[in-house]
Amino acid sequence: MKPLMSKQVLFIQGGGNGGYEADANLVASLQTELGKDYKVNYPKILPDETVQNFGQRWLQQIGKEISSFKGEIILTAHSLGASMLLKYLSESKTKENIAGIFLISPPFWTGNEDWVQPLKLQENFSDKLPKDIPIFFYQCRDDEVVPFDHLAFYKQNLPWAVFREMAHGGHQLNNDLSIVAKDIRKL
């Protein structure tokens, strides 16, 4: 009998100094909660947001990572990585092999500063996302990095998505992604 292949999960890290290392705890939690039937892949995305055109470089690397998978993939991302994944998906055509999208503590970029322009979603971004792929958002009310009211912008623009609000857990959800794993297993 041929062994079953693991379901593939791609986890995109958050930004900032030490973002990759900090999010490794999230990845470990997700892998533990999902078990051996899933393989959580965790590539290192550009570590330095101070480089010129870092937003475009993140998008290119996200595209490269997604396209490297054969077969169905589950996309999961945290913070800056979650907002950049959403931007990538709303501005590209790569959607045929995506089983679900799970976004943890994503900022909703606004403002007129030069540095924020490459991070902002297009005005009609929600029109370009497929409504047949499940999209989940997770955020804690006590998030100390991304204001909780950013979630309201996503709710307004993506009414078909599922929103999980937690009272406590901060920006890293106490490094416990059991709620995300539970949703992933339901796909």
Task: Please give a structural write-up.
- The protein has a single domain (7-185), classed as Alpha/Beta hydrolase fold, catalytic domain (Rossmann fold).
- 31% of the residues lie in helices and 18% in strands.
- The chain contains 5 helices and 6 strands.
- A 6-stranded parallel β-sheet has the order 2-1-3-4-5-6, sandwiched between helices.
- The protein is globular, with a radius of gyration of 16 Å.
- 34% of the residues are buried.
> How many distinct domains?
1
Work out the strand percent: 15-25%
Order of helices and strands: EHEHEHEEHEH
CA(first)-CA(last) distance: 25 Å
Cα-atom radius of gyration: 16 Å
What name does CATH use for the topology? Rossmann fold
- CATH architecture, by name, is 3-Layer(aba) Sandwich
Provide keyphrases for this structure.
single chain; 187 residues; alpha/beta; Rossmann fold; 18% strand; globular
Brief overview, please?
The protein is an alpha/beta fold. It contains 5 helices and 6 strands. The protein has a 6-stranded parallel sheet, sandwiched between helices.
Outline the fold blueprint:
Elements: E1 7-12, H1 19-34, E2 38-41, H2 54-67, E3 73-78, H3 80-91, E4 98-104, E5 135-140, H4 150-157, E6 162-166, H5 178-185
Helix pairs in contact: 1-5, 2-3
